[in-house]
Specification:
Layout lengths: L1 H25 L5 H17 L5 E7 L9 E2 L23 H31 L4 E4 L2 E5 L7 E3 L2 E4 L6 H16 L2 H14 L4 H25 L3 H11 L10 E2 L5 H8 L15 H12 L1 E7 L1 H10 L6 E5 L5 H15 L2 E9 L5 E9 L5 E7 L7 E7 L5 E7 L8 E2 L2 E2 L1 E3 L53 H72 L4 H51 L1
Parallel strand pairs: 1-8, 2-9, 4-6
Antiparallel strand pairs: 3-4, 5-6, 5-7, 9-13, 10-11, 11-12, 12-17, 13-14, 15-16
Helix pairs in contact: 1-2, 1-6, 2-6, 3-5, 4-6, 5-6, 12-13
């Protein structure tokens, strides 16, 4: 959206540049054909130049980035879990969308007007007798319409002019047709539709049409011996106010300017410099807005910087009691992406203040060994850190440490501290806590409940009396009117009850549907977490027991069973929603049946 607005602003600015260059420098010159191409070039440039972007590459010296202390809590991410914060919905106007809608309305309106003009032109030409002469098609009409040309069609009313006047008119229109001025008119109309909001484009179109008339007057005057008679013809045509749009009219409101330009001496050739005055401004536009600079590091210096960045101080990533779940996930992804280190975090628990009270951190090292920190407490946990060391050869080693900077098993209050399986006395991991399989969530069922009975038995609805066939039977008509009054009285009692019942049913079903959708949304989120936990659990079992163990096989079978149950739950969800839709359709059917009976009455 922003790119579109920038394009429109740039195009509008270029249109204004060419228009003002023409208005102040060229409109009084007699280089009419050159001005024609100048104005058309301005329109083309205004849509092409904003799309042309020159990319400039700037080579810079790379600077080694020092490794600094990076707490996980400073990652600039926002947690998705804030149970103590209530979300507030706020209304905000999308001005980009409003602007787009306004532009679309204007664009559609002018497009409709353009179509109407084409239809009007077709109505004038349809069914007319056409006389072909050379490359021109002459159409003689009876309507009081100003003479005009449209491509190779020249339309006029011969009965309104003398022979000399008609000769002047036809010579003028032949120039329009021979030089394809209709294309200029259509192009200017299209730009008025695209940039309808820009007042400059309407002045631009006027300048194009005026210059086309100057061209036709100049060329026609060369072929007519009596130039004064031609000018009198221009004045006579001004009495015809009816014109056909998207054509070259012989009549224009700027007759005085046309006569002045027709009698003006030819401009001196050295004035051609004015056409090139716009080039420096275009160059400035390109240099200011159409050059995109990209900074790249020099290869040899980048390699040197990579060498000097080795053997840096260790990178320490700290995990505190306030580190969020999202930050923990981002930490895992960062270590994998930046350092190719597999870090697994599980068994996360928090207290009412959203502080960590339990966490298990597992690091899988390059040699296949596993290092674990598992802490569990009734209070908020102390800090722990992931320490990454890089030696001179670029190889990395990772360690897990607690706040006391140790790597051997200790007991801190009620916390279970570090256990490192790299130690020689801990080659077996049998004493480590065995992985615990997560429990799959249970899918919710569509809220059940009784539907209130209808206050009115449809089978016992009052029936409207039948009017007598004999319109002269006064006794029968009197009885019919009496029965009709009684029927209307009963219906007035029933109608509010049925309307209230319909609203009651719709409210009940809508409430149940909303509750069910919320429960299903929570269930799907829980299933996503369960699937993630199962993947971690599978990796734990695989690392601890191996893929050939019975525990791993049992774990995978349980996982497949849970996923099949999830698929069954989702199918049941679809079935419940279909039944809900069916119940609503039945309710609508009952209401329509009642309305039908009411209309019959």
């Amino acid at each position: 959206m922003e790119a579109l607005f920038i394009f429109i602003v740039k195009s509008s600015s270029l249109i204004a540049l060419f228009y003002f260059a023409y208005f102040f420098l060229l409109r009084k010159e007699t280089f009419f054909n050159s001005s024609r191409w100048f104005l058309l070039a301005g329109l083309v440039t205004s849509v092409v130049l904003p799309l042309v972007v020159y990319t400039k590459v700037v080579w810079i010296d790379p600077v080694p980035v020092p490794v600094s202390y990076t707490p996980a809590a400073n990652f600039q991410y926002v947690s998705n879990f804030h149970p103590q914060i209530a979300e507030k919905e706020s209304f905000e106007i999308n001005w980009n969308l409003v602007s787009l809608v306004i532009y679309g309305i204007g664009f559609a309106a002018f497009m409709i007007k353009f179509g109407i003009d084409f239809y009007s032109l077709n109505s004038v030409l349809k069914g007319r007798k056409i006389e072909q002469q050379a490359d021109f098609k002459f159409v003689d009409i009876n309507e009081n319409i100003a003479p005009f040309s449209y491509f190779d069609y020249i339309v006029y009313n011969s009965s309104m002019y003398s022979e000399k006047e008609l000769e002047s008119i036809l010579e003028h229109e032949k120039v329009h047709s021979d030089q394809h001025h209709t294309i200029d008119v259509i192009i200017s109309r299209i730009f008025c539709i695209l940039f309808w909001f820009n007042p400059i484009i309407w002045l631009y179109k006027k300048a194009i049409l005026q210059n086309l008339e100057f061209i036709a007057d100049s060329e026609a005057a060369k072929k007519i011996s009596d130039k004064k008679a031609y000018q009198y013809t221009l004045l006579k045509i001004t009495t015809h106010e009816t014109c056909v749009a998207i054509t070259n009219h012989f009549y224009q409101s700027l007759i005085k300017k046309r006569i002045v330009m027709l009698n003006k001496n030819q401009s001196k050739k050295w004035n051609y410099w004015k056409y090139y005055a716009v080039l420096p401004v275009l160059a400035l536009f390109v240099l200011s807005f159409q050059i995109k600079t990209i900074a790249q590091e020099k290869k040899e210096l980048r390699e040197k910087a990579a060498l000097t960045s080795k053997n840096q101080d260790p990178e320490v990533i700290k995990i505190t009691k306030s580190t969020t779940d999202q930050e923990l996930r981002d930490l895992t992804a960062k270590l994998k992406t930046d350092h190719n280190i597999n870090l697994e975090i599980s068994n996360i628990k928090r207290n009412k203040n959203n502080e960590l009270t339990s966490i298990k951190i597992r690091v899988i090292k390059e040699n296949g060994k596993v290092q674990i920190i598992e802490m569990n407490s009734t209070e908020a946990l102390k800090d722990c850190s992931v320490v990454i060391n890089t030696d001179e050869n670029g190889s990395k080693s990772v360690s897990l440490v607690t706040a006391d900077q140790i790597e051997h098993p200790i007991v801190i209050k009620r916390e279970v501290a570090v256990r490192d399986t790299n130690d020689s006395d801990n080659e077996n991991d049998d004493d480590a806590i065995a992985p615990i399989a997560p429990i799959a969530p249970v899918a919710p069922a569509f809220p059940a409940g009784l539907i209130p009975p209808s206050p009115v038995d449809m089978s016992k609805m009052p029936k409207a009396p039948i009017a007598p066939k004999n319109i002269n039977d006064k006794a029968a008509w009197s009885k019919f009117e009496k029965d009709m009054a009684e029927f209307e009285k009963k219906m007035k009692v029933i109608e509010p009850q049925l309307a209230a019942y319909g609203e009651q049913i719709e409210a009940i079903m809508a409430e149940r549907g909303a509750i069910y959708e919320k429960q299903m949304a929570k269930y799907e989120v829980a299933m996503q977490k369960f699937s993630s936990d199962m993947e971690k659990y599978s990796r734990d079992v695989e690392i601890r027991y191996g893929v050939d163990s019975k525990d791993y096989e049992k774990n995978m079978k349980q996982y497949e069973k849970d996923m099949k149950q999830y698929e069954l739950d989702m199918k049941q969800h679809e079935k419940d929603m279909k039944q809900h839709a069916k119940d609503m359709k039945q309710h609508e059917k009952d209401m329509k049946e009642w309305e039908k009976e009411n209309r019959k009455s």
